[in-house]
Write a structure and sequence with these properties.
Layout lengths: L2 H10 L4 E4 L4 H9 L5 E4 H9 L9 H14 L4 E4 L7 H14 L3 E5 L18 H14 L6 E6 L2 H4 L1 H13 L4 E4 L4 H11 L5 E3 L11 H7 L3 E4 L2 H20 L12 H8 L20
Parallel strand pairs: 1-8, 2-3, 3-4, 4-5, 5-6, 7-8
Helix pairs in contact: 2-4, 4-5, 5-6, 6-8
């Protein structure tokens, strides 16, 4: 079954689809091994992993599509991709859709932001007009080859114009052919709870640490009616914390001994990398079975 078809089935299933955004390809393989049915790849995590910099439009479309392709090539689960805001016109949108679909993404997020990299929590973040947003989504839908390649329409309008305007924008996107929607940055549990009830299509909850939206567990979001939940920065933040603490301890003690229980065994890493092992009883390529229970 194509990953696009599988991903679409997950969105339509009663159980909420959990999508952690992978920090890099190795991270995506770890997430797959723990049992996640899909993983995410976004410009923010890719910029952090590739350049050690913020998501301020540093990645070109080619670089971002290549990051998605590398992840798709390494895992057997669908890869959800987030495209940066700021497409100048519908031709840009269609070029973006072609690139991500050819890279093997199962689903693509397109938004109504004007400038890439602005903080979604800022009340002064601008959004494009509703007609332009609808044109973006229609252009994306028209150019995709695989009809199961789902288009996620994201609106940042809650922070700018309020919930009612964001709902109107989401409905307009659905009329234009979007398959599911994200109304980003709801303010408090009240708005978070109302969103799935106001729309007939599958909705995505975005649980970003540091956002104005309360971070709730997946089972509560499922009970509210969300089809999927994405954690855009949690894995990267966990990696940064562990790496910083490890580096500080190594500098202090000159030894890794204090972190051995938190480190993977070399055999586990070999399994993740599918590396040939030189030991006499372990020759050839190792199993691709999940190594994290």
């Amino acid at each position: 079954m194509r990953s696009t078809t599988l991903f679409k089935q997950y969105l339509q299933a009663p159980e909420i689809l959990m999508i952690p955004v992978a920090h890099d390809v190795l991270c995506a393989k770890i997430l797959q091994g723990t049992g996640f049915k899909a993983v995410g790849c976004t410009s923010a995590t890719s910029a952090a992993a590739m350049f050690g910099g913020p998501d301020l439009g540093m990645l070109t479309l080619h670089e971002m599509a290549d990051a998605v392709w590398r992840m798709v090539d390494a895992v057997d689960v669908p890869v959800w991709a987030g495209a940066a805001d700021g497409c100048a016109n519908t031709a840009d949108v269609q070029h973006t859709v072609r690139a991500f679909e050819q890279a093997g993404a199962a689903s693509l997020m397109l938004g109504d932001g004007i400038a890439a990299g602005l903080d979604d929590r800022r009340s002064d973040k601008q959004v494009v007009g509703m007609d332009e947003l609808a044109a973006r989504i229609k252009a994306a839908v028209d150019v995709r080859v695989d009809r199961d390649f789902t288009i996620l329409a994201r609106t940042n309008a809650i922070a700018v114009h309020g919930l009612a305007n964001a709902v109107e924008r989401a409905e307009l996107c659905l009329e234009a052919g979007a398959d599911w929607v994200l109304l980003d940055a709801p303010e408090g549990c009240g708005q978070l709870r109302r969103i799935p009830q106001l729309l007939s299509a599958p909705t995505l909850a975005r649980m970003g640490l540091g956002d104005r939206t309360p971070v709730l567990p997946a089972n509560e979001l499922q009970a509210m009616g969300y089809a999927a939940v994405v954690w855009p920065n949690a894995v990267t933040l966990a990696y940064a914390k562990l790496a910083a603490d490890f580096a500080a301890e190594l500098m202090r003690s000159g030894s890794t001994a204090g972190y051995h229980e938190l480190m993977a065994e070399p055999d586990v890493l070999d399994d993740l990398l599918c590396m040939p092992v030189a030991a006499p009883l372990r020759t050839g390529r190792v199993s691709r079975e999940p190594v994290f229970a």
